[in-house]
Design brief:
Blueprint (H helix, E strand, L loop, with lengths): L15 E7 L10 H13 L3 H16 L12 E8 L9 H12 L12 H4 L5 H7 L5 H18 L13 E10 L2 H9 L26 H9 L2 H16 L7 E6 L5 H11 L6 E2 L6 H9 L8 H5 L3 E5 L12 E6 L14 H12 L11 E10 L7 H9 L2 H7 L5
Parallel strand pairs: 1-2, 3-8, 4-6, 4-7, 5-6, 7-8
Helix pairs in contact: 1-2, 3-6, 9-10, 13-15
Length: about 400
């Protein structure tokens, strides 16, 4: 078919591309139980928001033709190469490596009997392993699985080499500690829904919440996020940054967890402060409107109207990937430490740490014009300086081994 220059919405499948580059390639792989759970939580507040991202993932998988073993029969065709880019760990086990190998080139790696895709399991290519060696895999079979996965990684995968580009740019962490008052302490303890009163304490951990026992950690997380002292700390950090010499017109990025109402709490505090305010992405904003708002924090101020806009951009953690804010921003605040889970063993420290690192990566990345990037964390402690949820999660999400796993740097 022939298309006019003014035609819109031309299907990508109508062309044969020389190279295909897929950004955030992990979004096209399988959806985990944690992602589905997070989508359901988000849908409680906004029917469309929770599953919008998952629908995009499914559309991406369909366009890339993951279930089609013959690359030539996939909807999106390429002559030379397909490249996949990601900043999210997806190579931490053999199954993930196998998924990536199948997506990128239809490669067959030993051990597909446990592959998530039903069509592949029924292809009979792995029937020997499936019928005779599962679930009691021999050491020799496991050795071969690991060997072939590692061979694929050595051949097909390459980590970013940004050392030279980031030379001279330091990442400085600031831990802003504050204490809740007695009234906030009562509200904090009172939010531990389902936990017997005698067992409640400021040191309560997420692992101590048991859904099967009727515990509801979501109320606890929401109360922790909306503590008044946290909002005051956020305002003070922003004002201190803007009061520094040469930073009067600097731009600040704040990340908050929208699932637990943290973004709303942060927005109320910022907008209640005279001469501060913030810009946020509303669910009712069109794509054009969202892009316009983000662009204010990607480009320098030129007009008086530009300079009159709020200095603070407030984002959800779902915006932690894909945005480039390094050219204008070198201050980032994490409003509250990230925890995604229902308590017990449902939390995933590596995933949470990875999401926080991605958020930090919006400003700490190649192209940063400043020599120092400042990351502020707010830690709320008890009235007598007792460690509370924030301290536990900050220590968990910044643990050296966890961060190593989150960045795929582990051996």
């Amino acid at each position: 078919r022939t298309f006019k220059p003014t035609d819109k919405g031309v299907p990508l499948e109508y062309f044969e591309w020389h190279r295909v580059i897929v950004d955030e390639i992990h979004e096209s792989l399988c959806t985990t139980k944690g992602e589905i759970s997070a989508a359901k939580e988000a849908a409680q507040e906004d029917d469309a928001a929770g599953f919008f991202k998952e629908k995009n993932r499914r559309a991406g998988r369909e366009l890339l033709g993951i279930t089609e073993k013959n690359v030539n029969n996939r909807p999106l065709r390429f002559r030379s190469t397909m490249f996949g880019l990601t900043g999210t760990p997806l190579l931490d086990n053999c199954d993930r490596v196998i998924e990536l190998a199948n997506l990128m080139g239809g490669s067959y790696i030993i051990g597909l009997s446990s592959h998530w895709r039903k069509l592949e399991r029924e292809s009979m290519r792995d029937i020997f392993l499936h019928n005779y060696l599962e679930p009691r895999q021999s050491r020799e079979v496991r050795r071969n699985v690991y060997s072939y996965c590692q061979k694929y990684l050595d051949t097909a995968c390459c980590r970013n080499k940004t050392g030279e580009e980031m030379a001279g740019i330091s990442l400085v962490a600031h831990n802003h500690t504050i204490r809740m008052n007695d009234e906030e302490k009562d509200a904090y303890l009172g939010s531990m829904s389902g936990i017997p009163v005698a067992e409640r304490s400021l040191g309560m951990k997420p692992e101590e919440f048991d859904v099967d026992a009727g515990h509801d950690i979501s109320k606890f997380l929401r109360q922790n996020a909306k503590l008044a002292c946290r909002g005051k700390a956020l305002v003070n950090i922003c004002k201190n940054i803007l009061s520094q010499e040469g930073c009067e017109h600097t731009k600040i990025v704040v990340f908050a967890d929208g699932r637990i109402g943290a973004q709303v709490a942060a927005r109320v505090c910022l907008c209640s402060e005279p001469n501060l305010g913030c810009t946020w992405l509303d669910t009712s904003d069109s794509v054009e409107e969202k892009n316009k708002k983000i662009s204010w924090y990607q480009t320098a101020d030129v007009t008086d109207e530009d300079r009159a806009r709020p200095r603070v951009l407030l984002l959800n953690f779902e915006h932690a990937a894909g945005l480039n804010l390094q050219t204008e921003c070198n201050h980032l605040i994490l409003f509250s430490p990230l925890y995604v889970g229902q308590g017990g063993t449902t939390g995933d420290a590596v995933t949470d740490a990875s999401t926080e690192l991605q958020a930090i990566g919006r400003v700490h990345r190649p192209g940063q014009l400043k020599t120092q990037v400042n990351v502020f964390r707010i830690e709320v402690r008890g009235p007598d300086d007792e460690e509370c949820l924030d301290g536990q999660l900050i220590r968990r999400n910044t643990d050296e081994e966890t961060v190593s796993m989150a960045t795929n740097a582990a051996d």
